[in-house]
Amino acid sequence: MLTVSTVNVNGIRAAAAKGFTEWLAATPADVVCLQEVRAEPEQFPGHLRAPDGWHTLIAPASTKGRAGVAVFSRIAPTATRIGFDAPEFAASGRYAEIDLPNVTIASLYLPAGEAGTDRQSEKERFMTAFHAHLQRLHARAATTGREVLICGDWNIAHREADIKNWKANQKNSGFLPEERQWLSTLLDDTGYVDVVRTLHPNIEGPYSWWSFRGKAFDNDSGWRIDYHMATPDLAARATSAVTERAATYAERWSDHAPVTCVFDWDIAAVPAPRGPIVDVSTGVAAN
């Protein structure tokens, strides 16, 4: 079995002091994807920079105190990468991926945006570039047998069932019609599967983010914006998907909750190529 968790920690140092350390010690996950760590590697609490039993990949943002993603893996990666083929976002601290023997797992922190501002324009440029990257990853998976799992804070609630107050948020970033359409088109074009929604097709939520303001958490007035997006063969092996919502407001260590999926997947099995291995940037078969 392969167990993967994703969570926006809303600052690794603050989360560590509030309960993330204890959560990490107790989680059965093989891989944990973190977003919004907001720290350079040397600023991580010492026990989280290289925790016992974990291999860590940390991708901070060039803007200090902003963004930042990380991947913790109990399994030694065979390769690691920070960023993707988009120079504007190379040092933005928004994407990191690791290769395990037969699956690539990535941590994504898609920009939040703000309708009608430069922040929204930046989000849209990221979305365009990231769509192309996901197509390349999917093409590689189709030719090599390697599966792909993109975990993280996508900052888009896809469907009405993914946000409690959807009527009031139709003009707000995160639920704009064009953002939702982008996500629909991306899934249709690339073939990725929303694992949580596939396992929980007919429910509201399960929400993974609640504002710290007011009674949003107590009233379960949340958004589902933290996704596991998998290539079809891996998605078909998903056996469970759980949002680890804190029991009480006081027990929260982030405004997000971890989302954990379990796959009936043998991580040690090395896939056999399904055909010629193609360099997706050139379309030329490798020797």
UniProtKB/TrEMBL annotation:
The keyword Nucleotide-binding does not apply. Its cofactor is Mg(2+). Transmembrane segments: none annotated. InterPro entries: AP_endonuc_1 (IPR004808), Endo/exonu/phosph_ase_sf (IPR036691), Endo/exonuclease/phosphatase (IPR005135), ExoIII-like (IPR037493). Residues 6-256 form the Endonuclease/exonuclease/phosphatase domain. Keywords: Hydrolase, Magnesium, Metal-binding. It comes from the Bacteria. Pfam families: Exo_endo_phos (PF03372). The keyword Zinc does not apply. Belongs to the DNA repair enzymes AP/ExoA family. PANTHER family: EXODEOXYRIBONUCLEASE III. This is Exodeoxyribonuclease III.
